[in-house]
Description:
about 80 residues, alpha+beta, 2 strands, globular
Amino acid sequence: MFNATSAPAGGVVLDWRHAAIGPLAPCVLCGLPALCRSPVKDTPCHKRCAETWITSHATSHAHLAQLIAAYSARVPNGGA
């Protein structure tokens, strides 16, 4: 299995600059209160929890890249 030591230097970094913020709700991964919402699924989730999940579930470098792309925020039209 692909592991964290195979990840790029610094580990997985998701681009959640355009992620929504909502009321405190349990993180879908760790259960602790989270303000941040996953920009893809709009569910309460800590960015660090999502990055850890991706690192532990990636099976190769290509799969890691796919997961990062799939769970990074989509930039709104006209956004930077």
